Amino acid sequence: MAEFKEISPNAPIGAKVTNWFENRFPTMFAEYRKHMSEYYAPKNFNFWYFFGSLAMLVLVIQIVTGIFLVMHYKPDAAKAFESVEYIMRDVPGGWFIRYMHSTGASAFFVVVYLHMFRGLMYGSYRKPRELVWIFGCAIFLALMAEAFMGYLLPWGQMSYWGAQVIVNLFSAIPFVGPDLALLIRGDYVVGDATLNRFFSFHVIAVPLVLIGLVVAHLLALHDVGSNNPDGIEIKAGPKGNRWSPDAPADGIPFHPYYSVHDIMGVGVFLMVFFAIVFFAPEMGGYFLEYNNFIPADPLVTPLHIAPVWYFTPFYSMLRATTDTMVNVLVVIIALATVLAFLKCKCSMVLKIGLAVAALVAIALLKTFDAKFWGVVVMGGAVIILFFLPWLDHSPARSIRYRPNWHKWVYAVFVIWFLILTVLGIMAPGPIFGTPSLSWLTNEVVAMVGTLVYFGFFLLMPWWSQLGTPKPVPDRVTFKPH
């Protein structure tokens, strides 16, 4: 047993209380020092670093509001919609809690998308932070599962038919698809069994996984240290500052400096968040679709079924994967193989191996239905993010020191990702009403966007090495303000 630390009888009451707890719970104080007051973060963080703490804030909002919603919600196909209406109309403050939860779902994806983009810009996935990035991608995957299962719970028209479409996609998987779809639904159609399963996962299973991944993400981050806009390892630089001779010279304690600094981001975020909650909780039908205010009816299909906006980029990729898309992929693989034969300076054995692999890929593409490849593309769009640390071969970590044209590559990627988001909301068919542009359909544009999305990652080992990077400074650049 450790010896108790003594404190002066004349010490302030706050110091006495702290000393009392520290003597009885020293582990908590040690962890506080490790992860807060003695965790040295780079001193040049900018506004892009608000979004990690905002993601934690939204997670807390979702958990707290979810607890209060569960108190009144009935996971029963006959009563679910009525229980939501009861929460909205009769529970004191129920409308406020429900709108906070629904707005929080969209806010969660906004801050997570921006948080991931910051990592993409500054190379926060590069060595030694591969595990930090992988845990982050796993959080994103769990968040998508959590959002999809929660989307079914209001049991409105879009909830019901959206779940019907997504669950039926699993039936496209060869051999095990129909049984897998039946296992997920718990019945031959989306019904009471499906609602109960999704409720259990949304309220208990996935949140536990999500919290565990968040803890792992933070622990891995604090073990290797935070990245910064310059992409420079402050731990590898000179040591010693006003707080500790062993601390990085370019580091400052996370608390109180960044914990207080983040309050500004939290304040701005909460103003926008509550403005939406009070004045535009449906956000024009994008956060809460109008069809979802109609009770689920298995006999009436909505004219246009689309998921919530944060799923639409991947939904666009799913819809874009048609027989035409498969044929385009066959042509691309054939051309890439011919180019490899002509340009590659490798041995003939390797060239023959590439040709055989290309023939196998083409045979697989033509063997299975385009619907199956749509599911593969939609899932692959998320899975490919896990491999980003091994795809980027640029000598410079941060976009600040990469060739200027790299910024245009990132800009094109972001623009096409936003285009895919919009296309997923729109109904299939021609985008413009002009007869001369009738060929310009939603699917054709989404096909181009899908190729750009995957091309950005799959060609990254090649294009990330092109060009001459700018000189990277030895220490972080920082202008006091």
Write a structural description:
It is a single chain. It contains 18 helices and two strands. By secondary structure, it is mainly α. Strands 1-2 form a two-stranded antiparallel sheet. The longest helix is centred in the middle third of the chain and has 33 residues, at 192-224. The model has no long low-confidence stretch (mean pLDDT 91).
Number of strands: 2
| Helicity level | 55-70%
Order of H and E elements: HHEHHHHHHHEHHHHHHHHH
Shape, principal axes of CA atoms = globular
Structural class: mainly alpha
Total helical elements:
18
State the major sheet. 2 strands, antiparallel
Tell me which oligomeric state these chains represent.
single chain
Q: Which residue ranges are poorly predicted, with pLDDT under 50 across at least 5 consecutive positions?
A: none
Distance separating the two termini: 47 Å
Strand content: under 5%
Strand order of the largest sheet: 1-2
Throw out a few tags for this protein.
481 residues; mainly alpha; two-stranded antiparallel sheet; 18 helices; 62% helix
